[in-house]
Structures are given as C-alpha cells and as structure tokens.
Amino acid sequence: MTNRDWSPRFTARVAEQMRHARKAASLTVAEAAEACTALGLPVPKTTITNLETGRRSSIDLAEFLVLAEVYKVPPISLLFPLGTEASVAVLPEREVATWEAVAWFTGETPLERSAPQGSAREVLDTFRAHSDAVATAVTSTRLAKERRRKASITLDSGRRETLLEAAASYEQLAFDDCRELQEFRHTMHERGLVPPALPADLSFVDQRSADSEDSE
Question: How many other CB atoms are found less than 10 A from the CB of residue 133?
C-alpha cells in the first residue's frame, strides 16, 4: 500500500471508529459539535459529518482529541480498532497485528534489553513504574486505615486485638510502599523529570521529602 493509498484509508478507518463512538455515546452530530464548543474548540457539524461520510480525507489532531473526549473513549481506540480487527496498516506498506500497533504507539513494544536512560522509551517506562508505585502505595495505605478504623469501632476485645495486629502489619507495609515511592520521586527529580501530582491520600509523601531537604 503506497502512502497515497494509506493516508485516506487510515483516515477513513478512524472516521468510522469515531462514528461508532458517537452513536455509542448517544450523541447526534449537532450535540457532538455543541460539546466540542463547550470544551473550548468549536468543531462544526459539517466537519463531523464530512469526516464520517468520507468527504474529508484528513483529521486535525486537536479536533480528534476533543472529539475523543466528547465521546468518552481513549483516543488510541479510535486510531486502532483493538478487538474488532486482527491487523491494521499502521504505516504505508506495514500491516501488523492491531495489538502490536497499539504497543508501538504507546511505547509498550517488548524490548530485549532495558532502554538507555534518557531515551524516550526509558522515560515512558519510568513514568509507568511510577504509576505502579503510586497504585501500590494507595492500596496499602487505604487497607491500613481501614483495619485501624475497624479496630476502633469493635467492642469485642479479642477481635479488637486481632484487628490491631493486622493494622500494624498493614501500616508497616504502607510505610515501606510510601518510602519506596518517595525515593522513586526523589530520583525522578534528580534526573530533571517532573513526576505527576500525587493523590490526596498520599500528599504526605512529598511533604516528608520537603521536610527532609529543609533539615539538611
């Protein structure tokens, strides 16, 4: 497939995915256009219609992202029909499995060895690892609080003792997870990377880090 053939076909496939997404969201073309305007980027009804009917052979990136938000679907699901098509022409003259196309786009393609530090792939992997560390710390912290709460409201002394022991174990686990997250974020800062803001339940992690720096 030449570039001349691939580009309009790729656009047509994305437009078809967008049409399905709009209908799944139970939106008319007019309602979708109004929602785009509400988000700050007017997308005329004619633009949406022309895309869906094939009268427009290209997609503006900003319009694409706003429409994905309006339809409440991940933008990547509009690019690559994962689950409905086994393969896709990800580039001119390059047909691959749809999941491989998704992995290529998101930087999840398996590597034989770790990506060099500072490379685009290594930075992506670092932020994914940070996200996993946040999820782990959130879970252990909430479990510790829940065990402590249950212990505080039971009147059975035996059960209270059991719950307090469990709470102590979960609190130690939460402490270790939060300390690991704190060190991870500190390393990211040292590398000049800006980690995402923490959820409210973990805001103390950065506060502890700031307190440590002030005491040095």
Answer: 19
User: Among candidates 167, 182, 168, 94, which has minimal Cα distance to 137?
Assistant: 182
DSSP-assigned beta bridge partners for residue 91: 94
What pTM value is reported for the model?
A: 0.78
Whether 111 is in a domain gets the answer no
Same domain, 16 and 53: yes
114 within domain boundaries: no
As a whole number of angstroms, the distance between CA 107 and CA 113 comes to 14
How many structural domains does the chain have? 2
Instruction: Tell me the C-alpha distance between 150 and 134, whole Å.
Output: 24
pLDDT digits (tens, 9 = 90+) for 131-142: 999 999 999 999
What's the rounded mean pLDDT across residues 192-205? 94
Report the pLDDT value the prediction gives residue 209, as an integer from 0 to 100. Answer: 53
Count of alpha carbons within 13 Å of 25, Cβ hemisphere only? 19
179-195 per-residue burial string, b: 16 or more CB within 10 A, e: under 16: eebbebbeebeeeeeeb
Taking the C-alpha atoms of residue 209 and residue 194, their distance in angstroms, rounded to an integer, is 15
Same domain, 130 and 73: no
Domain that holds residue 20: 3-106
| The pair of three-digit structure tokens given for residue 214, joined into one six-digit string | 């002030």
On whether residue 113 sits in a domain, the answer given is: no
Q: Are residues 128 and 189 in the same domain?
A: yes
Q: What is the mean pLDDT of residues 29-57?
A: 95
Please check whether residues 10 and 91 belong to one and the same domain: yes
